[in-house]
Sequence to fold (734 residues):
Amino acid sequence: MEALIQNFFNVEVMYRARILLWMGLKVTLQLSAVSLVLAIVLGLLLASLRNLHNKVFDALIIIYVDLFRALPTIVLFMLVYFALPYLGVCLPAFGAAVLTLTINGAAYFEEIFRAGIESISKGQTEAAKALGLSFTQTMRHVILPQAVRVVLPPATSNSLELIKTTVLASVIALPELLKQAQQAHGLFANPTPLVEAALIFLLLLWPLVRLTGYLERKFG
Amino acid sequence: MKRVIVVMMMVAVALLLALPAFADDHPSDQPLRAAVDMGFVPFAFLTETGEATGFAVDLANALAEELGRPGAEIVDVNWSGIFAALFASKVEFIVAPTNITEARAKEMDFTEPYMDTAELIAINAKDRDKIKTLDDLEGKVIGVNTGSSGHTWLMENQERYGFKIDQYDRMPDAMMAVQVGRIDAGIGDLEAVAYYVKDKPELFGAIAVPTGQQYGLPCRKADPFRNELEQALENLKLNGTLAEVHEKWFGRPAELGSAATLVYIGYGVFGLPGFELTYHELP
Amino acid sequence: MEIHNLIHYFFNGRVFLDTLPQLAHGLWITVQIAFLSVSIGFVWGLILAVIRVTVKRPTNAWPTRLLNLPIALYVDVLRSIPPLITLVVIYYALPYLGIYLPRFWSAVLTFVAVMSAFAEEIFRAGIESIDLGQVEAGRSLGLSYLQMMRYVVLPQGFRVAIPPLTSRMIAITKDVSLASVIGVADLLKEARAAQAFLANPTPLISAALLFTLVFLPLVRISMYLERRLAQ
Fold:
């Protein structure tokens, strides 16, 4: 037990590792924010394209979504970082991580937004038109409230997953939180920084986990 | 609506195509991009405040100055992906200590050697009296950094000495496993392991395996940059900078006649692919 | 870059054939970890959910209801922390507690824990979604608590739980490749090691293809189930 505290909850090491971990946390937050926004935008775009019911677009998008939901994200990271340069796309670690998370996240967001769009039955839009509501009014009072109910729980859950997935960028040596924790681990020869990183994630994500649960219960 | 979407797609495609491609691999006005495996003490590691430091970092900076570049950019890559990074032109060369081997020389061009080295096997201090020679390793589990020359040595000698091999992503990971008692021993480059066990009473550098290895700087095959880099390296040997860096990190001056002070003829390593027997002027 | 370079470095037939045995072995390891983790985690999560629902009942005294807390903590912690970190911490922590697990089992333990946390939440949501009216009806018919669970609540709860459960099981199975980071000789680790030794990325591409081949059908099945059961 004593050994456990000394090696895992060592306060002195936690204090000494703070700068490295703080640097890592900043990168994690930046990566999360940028990738999340891009993934949502791309997912929305793809879902809207599917709404056009064009056979070619549909086929392409289905292939995209299936492929990137089947391929493990860690494999995708390595492909983007090590393989893409041969095709002329040479990205630094951060860019590669953003690209990977965006491509992967968008595949999931597309399905979420598509479900949202499809949940609004055409009948409602036509009824709204018949009632004389303008496009904006229809959006505001008929479509969006319902779409948001369907989309919000899985969207928050997926965003949470994306933030957790940023740690995979450590395998392409991006200096995010886990990677810096590993550096500190090697520097102090003590695993405490790893626990410290876990605690930081816990603090960061636990509220989101609770929020997701709440939304799922409210709108589920 | 349809038109908006089409335009957005065209913009996206345009942006994608505008991404920087390889253009010039060795731009003379950019920092020198060198790959390391961060965490490999004392060659490349982060200080508490997050700065990159170490023998390899100092060497990279010295080389950059010789080549007239505005400093060196240290790129961190996991060891098992470091050659892939070199081939993918993510870096201009590898400054992490890389053992010169024939298999590697087939895929890349080394500069001449810049340091002599060997392998060191570290054990848990409590086994100090039990493991003294290579024969004592029979049946024991030895950890190693995947893809390193220590790994190759282990594979070549496994039958002879009868030990088991355990693979790790980084040398410190292997050493920590020894500390904790998960495995019996860890093998790695002499200087790196010696430095690592220096301040850890639980670890003991037990057996030095003289292998006659040398470190060289890998560049891409047929890349003319290799010759430029080698000349810069030779200058560092001649003006004593390399010896200074050596003494700073290893605590003792480089031996006269060792690779750190010797300038080799031609470019590359004699006897291995990539060697050019051309006489070049020294300044 | 020229096409023949691309083929030499990515679709190198020679390298592919040479490394296939290692990769196949790695794939087998991946499948084993995935299967064990998902099945044990499923069962353990179900048990936790039933316990939690039982102790949470308003008919219980508050000390009993407090037993809900350790499970809630377990579940929340394991769902908040990225599985890779959990994996690494467990791997380094156990030896200090005197437990020397081989890496393989260290990975299985981690994924069982993570799977059980998610499964608990999914099952609990399923159970709690059962209309209270049914529970009342069951009670009035004279069924005991256990019988009600077995014949009324759980079967229906399952139906609600299956879609999110399958997608979570697939997600965990994909996460199994993370075990390569602590050195388990799974498909990804074999691919990376081969890539390092041969200085050729073909093994990575081969691994990606193998992964996709294995997961594509699973993803489709999960989508099908989601659609069919989520009327």
